[in-house]
Amino acid sequence: MTSRSLLGAGVLGAIVAFGMAAAAAQDQSVQRSFAPGGTVYLDLSAGDYRISPSADDKIRIIARPTSKHDADETSVRIDVNARGNRADVVVDGPLNDGVNVDIELPRRTHLVTELSAGELQLKGIEGSKDISARAGELTIEVGDRDRYRHVDASVRIGELRASKFGVNKEGFFRGFEWDGRGSYDLRVKLWVGELTLN
User: Fold this and answer.
1) Residue 3 covered by a domain
2) Nearest Cα to 98, choosing from 114, 112, 119, 81?
């Protein structure tokens, strides 16, 4: 192989390596052990979030910026502080572009979640849930409604669908409350957008 060919191959390899490093720098992942039955506090910046059960009783978070810009300009910060039966999680992504985030939690977990804006899908988590968001689309899998003691859900402007509770509303200041004989509480507050409890 000529020196020119070697030089070309070296440059190409460096470009590929740099591209792979930049892509890796964009993705952030964190995992922590956490006992079932505890409470997880999620502080989430704008983005698309999917929350589901983990197979191994761990908190596991994988975040990917949606922007195609340079990794340094679209960095994602994930902080997880888990002690005893409480875990505090912060996901802070790019202001304009948001993030795509997969969050896995022990199946039996109580949740307190604040989302600035975006889309949140929650399924398969058993426990009390207190979720609030300013704007976006929230889809919460309730499971068996008889597991709940009290349900309080509302949308200031938008749509509220809760088929298991016989609710289908849209407009301004829509909400409902429901009482059962279970042991969990469900509270969901959305300022503007669509809220679905299924």
Assistant:
1) no
2) 119
Q: Which long-range contacts (CB under 8 A, 24 or more apart) does 52-57 make?
A: 52/102, 52/103, 52/104, 52/105, 52/122, 52/123, 52/124, 52/125, 53/104, 53/105, 53/106, 53/107, 53/124, 53/125, 54/104, 54/105, 54/106, 54/107, 57/33, 57/106
Alpha-carbon gap, residue 194 to 8, rounded angstroms: 54
Q: With respect to residue 107, please indicate whether it lies within any of the assigned structural domains.
A: yes
Q: How many domains does the chain have?
A: 1
Whether residue 126 has pLDDT greater than 80: yes
Q: Are strands 129-140 and 99-105 parallel, antiparallel or unpaired?
A: unpaired
pTM: 0.82
Whether 2 has a pLDDT exceeding 60, the answer reads no
Tokens representing 191 are 């300022």
For residue 44, the enclosing domain spans 28-197
Choice among 12-16, 40-44, 117-121, 147-151 with the minimum mean pLDDT: 12-16
Q: Please report, to the nearest 10 degrees, the dihedral formed by the alpha carbons of residues 102, 107, 113, 119 taken in order.
A: 40
**Residue 15 φ then ψ, to 5°:** -65, -45
Residue 20 domain-assigned (yes or no): no
